[in-house]
Write a structure and sequence with these properties.
single chain; 10 helices; alpha/beta; globular; 37% helix; 7 strands; binds S-adenosylmethionine; 16% strand
Length: 304
């Protein structure tokens, strides 16, 4: 099982390092992820552990509508995606391009703020377009303009897999128990009762003035990072907390998380604006515990 969409900042390639920082001796636990994105960590944990209560959240309405469709209406979604894939595969490149922009316009014309109150047909329409666009756009990345309209250009993929039915069904099974919400992270964190393992992967603090890009819904600035750190301190006694962020080379995070443990990992990332050159950069792994799984056996399975 792997994420059913590609997402900016997706953690697929970092999981091997991050697993070293999981809390030790936990096989059955409650899991919360307030910045879900493509859900790489959730699907990885669902593959390897016995998750009890599951709370998943992201502020992006169309992303969450798509999770709801996979959770509740997977069969119908598979049919719609198969139709879109057939339509695309049967077209020549010029027709594929026209089709892509037609899908993009239809997707942007659907507007709502709360996916949880949508009817079934709208959820299915928006989610099938969301996945099809994700598989056919440039670089497979969901990018939006200031009005939150999807604006990634056509990707020139000749025969992309728009629907991986087997994987989508497995994702749907993994989501059955999950409570899925679309709200600010603070509401999700404030509503957690019991003990949770919480993984937080917020939009990163930009490491340079030019590295900031708008791939996400809304704005996440230094004040948001501060609000998050304050809230995590307040609920820290109750949960195991693990957070990823950029290593911006300043003492911003060391000051914010002075009561937490801060480690660094080396991560392969695009290092120039065209995204072609890749290199290793350092990222922060912040936790409120230091009894890590890396001190124990490491026999987890990696599928990504
Ligand atoms: C770095 S991405 C998460 C990537 C994810 N870990 C993955 O593997 O794909 C950050 C996510 O936070 C979401 N987000 C931004 N601001 C938010 C907020 N205030 N509350 C909740 N989610 C937010 C964005 O929509 C985005 O999906």
């Amino acid at each position: 099982m792997k994420p059913f969409i590609k997402w900016a900042g997706g953690k697929n390639f970092v999981l091997a390092s991050l697993q070293n920082f999981f809390p030790s001796k936990q096989n059955n636990f409650n899991y919360a992820e307030p910045f879900l994105g493509g859900g790489a960590m959730f699907f990885y944990l669902a593959n390897n552990f016995n998750l009890q209560k599951i709370v998943l959240n992201d502020v992006s309405p169309k992303l969450i509508a798509t999770y709801l469709a996979v959770q509740k209406y997977c069969k119908q979604l598979v049919v719609l995606l198969n139709n879109l894939q057939q339509q695309y595969w049967q077209s020549n490149q010029e027709q594929q391009k026209a089709l892509f922009y037609q899908w993009r316009e239809a997707f942007n014309n659907i507007s709502f703020s709360c996916p949880l109150s949508l009817n079934k047909s709208t959820i299915l329409e928006v989610s099938s377009l969301f996945i099809a666009l994700n598989k056919t756009c440039f670089n497979g990345l969901f990018r939006t303009n200031k009005q939150n309209a999807f604006n990634s250009p056509f990707g020139y993929h000749l025969k992309p897999t728009i629907i991986d039915e087997h994987n989508l069904q497995k994702c749907s099974q993994a989501l059955q128990k999950a409570s899925i919400t679309c709200q600010d992270f603070s509401e999700t964190l404030n509503n957690l009762t019991d003990n949770f393992f919480i993984y937080l992967d917020p939009p990163y603090k930009p490491i340079s003035k030019t590295s900031s890009f708008n791939s996400y819904f809304g704005d996440f600035n230094d004040q948001s990072q501060q609000k998050l750190a304050l809230l995590l301190q307040q609920i820290s006694h109750q949960h195991h907390i693990l957070l990823s962020n950029s290593d911006d080379g300043t003492d911003f995070f060391t000051n914010l998380y002075s009561d937490f443990f801060i480690n660094k990992i080396a991560v392969a990332r695009s290092i120039n604006s065209k995204g072609k050159a890749r290199g290793k950069i350092s990222e922060l792994v912040i936790s409120n515990y230091n009894n890590f799984l890396q001190n124990e056996q490491q026999s987890l399975e990696f599928n990504f």
